[in-house]
Amino acid sequence: MPKRKRVAADQGGGSRRKPKTPTTDFIFENSRFSGSSINYRAPCTSSEGRLCDIFRELTIWNEFFCEVGLELRELSPGQISLVQVDGTDVTPQIRRQHEATMLLHRLLMCHRCLFSVVLNSYVLVHHDEMICDELPRSVSLRQLRVSLQDRDMCALRTFAAVLPLLNNLQELDCRLPILERTFCEGLSKLLRSTASLTTLKLRASKTEPEEGMLILHGLERNTTVTTLSVTKCTELFLFQGGVVFADYLSENQTLRTLMVTSDCANYSKVPNLIIRSLFRNTTISEVKLIGFDLNDKNSRLVAEMLSENRSLKTFHMVKSSLYGSGRIPETDGVSGRICPWIIAFDKNRTLERLTMELSCFNLRECKSLFKVIASNKSLKNIAVERVRPTDEAEICRLLLESGVRERFFLARPHVVEDPAVTLTECKELSGVTINTDTPRGLDSLHTALFLLPSCSHVTSLTLDLQQQCLNGDVISLMAQYFTSTTVLRDLQVILSPKTSNTVNRAERALMQALFFNKSIRKLSMTGVDFDETEIQMLVETLQASRTLYELSYHPHDSMSTVLLIQKLSQNVSSNYTLLSIQVDRYIVDWVSRRELFTVNDVVGRNLSLVTRAANFVMGTKNRYCAAAAELVHSNPGLVDKVQALASVDENEASSRIETSMKSFSELDDFMRMAGVVKYSVTCHRRDDGQLQLTDLNRDCWLYVRQHLKIGDIPDAQ
After folding, report:
1. Where is this region: Disordered (predicted)?
2. What CA–CA distance (Å, rounded) separates 207 from 172?
């Protein structure tokens, strides 16, 4: 393919020519759902403290973008992002596909509030030149994700040609079927020339080491990338036996975070290469290995690396096993497999966070490990992926005895085999699973439901239930617990097989109990067989709840999903709590797409409000963020967001939210935040002596304030 010439507009200098744009003569049809016309010609009006006018029209824009599986979201206050809509089947008409692509072109060309974009096959294929020509000209685009399929190689090559011209890009995320040579060449050029790119994410099902070499050579000469994430395409590490990648990783002075996800758990060369390289690296502070089955050699190597490395603060082995090839004979009471780890935690005083499994160690080995960790004060958080089911109670006792319980976190929901022991003795287990598909399933379920009301440490519960276990006694205990619990945050119910019967309706009891629950934030239901009454109860629960912000619904009968969306869409606009709803993707063949769009649109609105409110709590003091905080300050999703942004616990996040709301409760503070006055409120004395705003005492003003919101005051324009 001929190389694309860089024109003046690509350089960002000089006066910009105003050619005839693709949208100049095109006539857009009205939107599919509301029948509205789109004002795509309106210019960007964003400025400091002021939203672009496009935010008032996001619903209409998204009616066009949903045709290609995309939507506009506000992921950062005042900035718009074009994101992928997961879980929807897309079969766009050619004209609708063309309309969405031209709207994207308009955003790239005119809107400085555009922050990030996802390019999928629907917008890039057949329109690759139009979109790719505009990408380098966008002055505000900072994050770009490209997600293509096997048939899209022509579009990928067009995109590869403009890669070196993306001078303002900070994050690039490529999800491709193959790391094709033309793409690798373009990416290599970008890596060598960029002054802005800090995050590179690569995901591909196939690559050849020779093609990966081009990327590695680009990385070797790069001085900006601080975060590198590689998923599946780990073959790119192996060119020339891994020497090139090992040299890059060992000698690089810029990279701070490395994440590698395996596509073959038993492939030992890649983790071996990474771990050996970390012996010499002095700048990487975070490494995450996902999905690796580490054999004896690599397991020992990790421990030896941690003994010597002095830059790593975080090391995560997620969904990864240690010592996958069998046990090592024990000698003198301490096995050969635990010795390297004891040495590592005794010597390392840099590591702060660690994720690993403990099921590879017996109790004596775990005791030795906990003892040395107790004296290592720098290691503040250890997430444990797995322990031996028979050792759970003893593990928890050892954690308590060695004084390290507060630093250990059992990461995954734990399958409880003996509730009488686990629930009463293992206070470290916050997430538990009760599976009735076992010989003692009914007894375990009954015991668990009897004990759970007294288990304040259990905040996440999964019930995997068989039909034959749902007798009247069990259903009654389940309903009592759901009604009374004040600590349960996450509930997942799996019913199998079909449980509907006329005698014991577990679904009816479940919904009656959930309606009165005040603590559950995330609810997942799979295999349920709801009738219309129970679906209506679920809708009413969603509408009434001020805590339930995430729903996953995958019933036995797809028609109940259809009915759920139909009923929910009628009044969902009044819901300011719901932040996520996951349903089976095939329902778009049954449900009116308008109803599904209505629900998703409200979810998007609520997410934007939580984003603005969280940033207000964190210090972004403008009127539209304050207005959002007034609307969603009690949403538990806001607490989670502030926790993530500030790296604090739930209590501290709640305290910060409360403090931020008080910051504009008084008269002068409120009027300044609303933009009515610059400093304070003053009123000229009236000749008739009538009471004025400043004459109100504090109690009277606070009463008025209960009925007056920032959003009630028109924005001065």
Report:
1. 1-24
2. 18
Q: Which residues contact 299 (CB under 8 A, 6 or more apart)?
A: 322, 323, 324, 337, 360
The 8-class DSSP code of residue 333 comes to: T
CA distance linking residue 368 with residue 401, whole number of Å: 12
Tokens representing 278?
Answer: 């970390």
Q: Which residues contact 329 (CB under 8 A, 6 or more apart)?
A: 335, 336
Query: Mind listing the pLDDT tens digit for each residue in 330-375?
Result: 544 567 889 999 999 999 999 999 999 999 998 999 999 999 999 9
Q: Is the CB of residue 228 less than 8 Å from the CB of residue 254?
A: no
3-class SS shares of the chain: helix, strand, coil, % to 5: 45, 15, 35
Q: What is the DSSP letter of 151?
A: G
Q: How far apart are alpha carbons 395 and 363 in whole angstroms?
A: 7
Q: Cβ neighbours of residue 585 under 8 Å, at least 6 residues apart?
A: 87, 88, 89
Q: How far apart are CA 28 and CA 40, in angstroms?
A: 9
Q: Cβ distance 305 to 278 under 8 Å? A: yes
Do residues 342 and 333 touch, judged by C-beta distance below 8 A?
no
Kindly list the distances between the CA atom of residue 672 and the CA atoms of 625, 675, 710, in Å, as whole numbers in the listed order. 14, 5, 10
pLDDT of residue 555: 92
CA separation, residue 566 to residues 68, 337, 448, 594 (Å): 22, 58, 36, 10
For residue 51, the SS3 value is coil
What is d(CA 312, CA 285) in angstroms, rounded to the nearest whole number? 4
Q: Is residue 164 reached through a cis peptide bond, with omega within 30 degrees of 0 on the bond before it?
A: no
The residues with which 367 forms a beta bridge, in sequence order, are none
Length of the chain: 717
Task: Point out which residues pair with 47 in neighbouring strands.
Answer: 50
The answer to whether 291 touches 275, Cβ cutoff 8 Å, is no
SS3 state at 295: coil
**Cα 164 from Cα 162, distance rounded (Å):** 6
Q: Is 415 in a helix, a strand, or coil?
A: strand
Q: How far apart are CA 437 and CA 626, in angstroms?
A: 50
What angle, 0 to 180 degrees and rounded to 10, lies between the N-to-C axes of helices 296-308 and 339-347? 20
pLDDT recorded at residue 257: 98
